[in-house]
From TrEMBL:
Protein name, as recorded: Motile sperm domain-containing protein 2
Residue intervals of the MSP domain: 312-439
Biased composition (Polar residues): 280-290
GO cellular component annotations of the record: endomembrane system; endoplasmic reticulum-endosome membrane contact site
Keyword Oxidoreductase found: no
Pfam families: CRAL_TRIO, Motile_Sperm
Length: 529
């Protein structure tokens, strides 16, 4: 549809709303004269037919009139709000999109007047940037570091979502959500209901481990693992881009090819969604920890819940491969084999991939090198066969798998893919590592226990409780006996003491009588001699 046809249709249906005050005259005139602005709605591919595109433009002009966006200038906002630095432009993503940074920690409940002022501020920022660079897409970065439920203003998020879906269709590059707390997963489900399918494709949940896939280290904040130590400090003109906030030269971005925004960036829930907490504090259960990722070019290529979304492909599992060691009597080889699923999300060309390990003697990878066409998937089988440690013991070291991928031409052989990966510049390589965990499975109840002569755990517990009860009774009886013996001993001592005293009294009395008898008898007479 041409811009001329769109303007004629819009004027025919809505020109009367200017006189009624529902449209601002300046906004209507801009739509009729500014081709770049009009093309936002006339060329909105997601809107579909003409009527849907006209409704987008109508909703935008109504909002602009309601929030008085057209007449806003930097001087209309309090200096304190400008100096706070909760929302500002800085840096760019790997595709050169300027980043509009939101510090969610600074958000919270607001009054209607405060919310209106924030809406006006964001609208003014977007409008100023769009006037300067109408063809330049913008990426949003929601930094949720240290944020909690109290910091998430759903009214504000609803406005931001609507701004990029309705008021500025086609302006959004990506919406990056950094370090989404698991307690906000329930809130995200509410936000997701406001998004259409096209918008969902552009939302990327980031963590410190994968944020550099989308933002180069020198353009990334230090607290996110980058080297950019930028500290926000307000100066007039900086918010609208009159003061350069990021390099826009093509030389700054290098010659690296990046993923197509329309075909490969998919929606993924943050970890711990299975134990989500709703806004009222109650726990909710979900059947998956992430949305299924589906490539538009191949509807059959989907990835499960624990998937890593990289620049060129998605990898399942995301970060760890777990092997189980065989036990006595169990020769099931599937315990020592695991499958890694690679799904291409890069639609511009084929991909060469290679899987390496830190311990080739213990791990077999098939296929370790190969070619992946756009939208295709491949299953890489990793077999654990320890060469140095006993089969029943896990290795003491920490083994890892490394996956490399880079765009190449279609139809390359295995050897050509390997050479292409060796010669590819580091900027064009996607690298991801997975931990290898080896564990010994627990024996089944009644099998290994019976073989070793031990009772099952529940029977052992019952026997232990019985023994404790028996010992407790014995201790009680011994305590009673000890108390009785102590009382008997005291009684015996008292009797003994009384007996000793009585005997001493008798002995003293007897000695006294004998002495008295001797004194009355006197000395013997001489005649007796």
């Amino acid at each position: 549809m041409s811009i001329k046809e769109f303007r004629e249709a819009f004027s025919e249906q809505y020109s009367g709303l200017v006189a009624s005050g529902e449209f601002a005259a300046t906004d209507y005139d801009r739509l009729m004269s500014d081709d770049a602005y009009c093309n936002c709605f006339a060329g909105a591919a997601r809107a579909g037919n003409l009527e849907a595109r006209l409704q987008l433009a109508e909703a935008c002009l109504r909002w602009r009139c309601q929030d008085q966006i057209s007449g806003l200038t930097e001087a209309d906002f309090p200096l304190e709000a400008l100096q706070k630095g909760s929302v500002f432009f800085h840096s760019e993503d790997r595709e050169g999109h300027p980043i509009l940074y939101f510090r969610i920690q600074d958000s919270g409940k607001t009054s209607p007047d405060e919310l209106l002022q924030i809406r006006q501020f964001i609208g003014w920022l977007l409008d100023s940037r769009h006037r300067r660079q109408p063809e330049q897409k913008i990426s949003l970065l929601f930094d949720m570091t240290n944020a909690g439920v109290a910091n998430l203003n759903l009214d504000l998020v609803r406005f931001v979502v609507r701004a990029f879906q309705v008021y500025y269709p086609g302006l959004l590059g990506y919406l990056f959500v950094y370090e989404m707390p698991w307690v906000l997963t329930a809130a995200w489900k509410v936000i997701r209901s406001w998004l259409d399918k096209e918008a969902q494709k552009k939302i990327i949940f980031l963590k410190r481990s994968n944020v550099q896939e989308y933002i180069a280290p020198d353009k990334l904040w230090v607290h996110m693992g980058g080297t950019d130590d930028y500290q926000y400090e307000y100066s007039p003109g900086m918010l609208t881009g009159d003061t350069a906030e990021y390099p826009t030269s093509g030389d700054e971005c290098g010659d690296v090819e990046f993923v197509d925004a329309e075909n490969s960036m998919q929606v993924s829930l943050p970890p711990n969604d299975a134990d989500a907490v709703s806004l009222d504090g109650s726990q909710t259960q979900t059947s998956q920890r992430s949305f299924k990722i589906r490539s538009p070019a191949a509807s059959s290529a989907s990835v499960g819940s624990s998937s890593y979304i990289g620049r060129y492909m998605s990898i399942s599992p995301a970060d760890q491969v777990t092997f189980r060691l065989a036990t006595a009597g169990n020769n099931n080889s599937s315990d020592s084999q695991r499958t890694i699923t690679l799904t291409s999300t890069w639609q511009q060309s084929a991909l060469a991939y290679k899987v390496k390990t830190t311990c080739p003697a213990d791990y077999r990878v098939k296929p370790s090198v190969g070619l992946l066409e756009p939208g295709a998937s491949v299953c890489v089988v990793v077999t654990y066969r320890p060469s140095s440690t006993p089969p029943s013991q896990p290795p003491a070291r920490s083994d890892k798998l490394q996956l490399l991928a880079a765009p190449v031409e279609s139809g390359l052989s295995r050897e050509a893919c390997q050479e292409a990966l060796k010669s590819a510049p580091s900027e064009a390589l996607m690298e991801h590592r997975l931990r290898c965990r080896v564990e010994t499975p627990k024996p089944a109840a009644g099998s290994a226990a019976a073989a070793s002569g031990r009772l099952p755990d529940d029977q052992q517990l019952a026997a232990l409780r019985s023994e404790v009860s028996r010992l407790s009774g014995m201790v009680s009886r011994l305590a009673v006996q000890q108390s009785q013996r102590l009382a008997y001993t005291k009684y015996s001592l008292w009797l003994l003491a009384f007996g000793v005293i009585f005997l001493a009294f008798l002995l003293g009395w007897s000695c006294g009588r004998q002495a008295a008898s001797s004194s009355h008898a006197g000395p013997p007479h001489s005649t007796d001699l």
